[in-house]
Design brief:
homodimer, mainly alpha, DNA-binding, Arc Repressor Mutant, subunit A, elongated, about 60% helix
Chain lengths: ~130, ~130
DNA sequence: GCAATGCTACTACATATGTAGTAGTAATAC
DNA sequence: GTATTACTACTACATATGTAGTAGCATTGC
């Protein structure tokens, strides 16, 4: 029932749908960089699986092809991934933060931004 | 032949080894809370797989049982998980940070701490 | 020494995921 | 209206992971 955990390929497909609003299998496939573009049927199979998980739905049929759209938001999907990662860390965010910083991929600006967001949240909750 | 990505159960087993230094299958199994303790052979199978991945190794045999120890550090293993998550986000940390904050699991203190760490790093790199 | 117990090594199986082939039907191009 | 092309629906298969059973050898307790 809840939000399904999406895999790498599934997320890439969802990304195409979140960006385009809606798309056909072919359009999704062509959204992949030519060099690492899976076969048409690979995308198709994965879209069908996403459909089974209720993460995408068919919106209409145009000509002989179907058009799909995301049925879960990017936020929800991303949140699920992060919650699952956190679970692997026993729910502790500290090591996650530490590694993000250590990886050199978080800038001071990101932190500042985060801090601002956090202050806003705190104010709203009071 | 980089560091393998470890799964949920694998991480739980590694956690036991990182905590105890070294342990037998039975000891690892008993480190699980009674209510969600997998069968002995489930732990065994998973330890064997970790061995195949070179994430653990046998250190000795005591009586008729083997004693295992971690062959990769907690840091390395955690780092791998985070790098893989980041890859799902196209390498952008911003959404990860945003979700961590939104989840309410990161406190302002965590951010302050992170900021301090980051400032230190920047200084060192100059 | 022999029976009980415990551990190992191996096998088995279900689900998830990445990957893609094939058969057949539907749209299209003339 | 027929040949080509494109898409769908289905099948197949390998690897990863969680899960656990079984057969048999090693230890141990007497």
């Amino acid at each position: 029932m809840g939000n399904p955990k999406l895999s790498r390929l599934e997320m890439q497909i969802m990304e195409a749908l979140w960006n385009c609003g809606s798309a056909s299998i072919r359009e999704i496939q062509e959204s992949f960089p030519e060099k690492k573009r899976p076969a048409y049927t690979t995308i198709q199979t994965t879209v069908y699986r996403l459909e089974a998980k209720k993460a995408v739905r068919r919106v209409k049929k145009v000509g002989n092809f179907h058009v799909f759209e995301a049925a879960v938001s990017r936020d929800i999907a991303q949140r699920k991934l992060i919650d699952d990662l956190l679970a692997l860390f026993g729910g502790r965010t500290q090591p996650v933060m530490a590694h993000l910083i250590e990886s050199g991929k978080v800038t001071l600006a990101d932190i500042k931004e985060a801090e601002k967001t956090l202050r806003h949240l705190e104010r709203e909750e009071k």
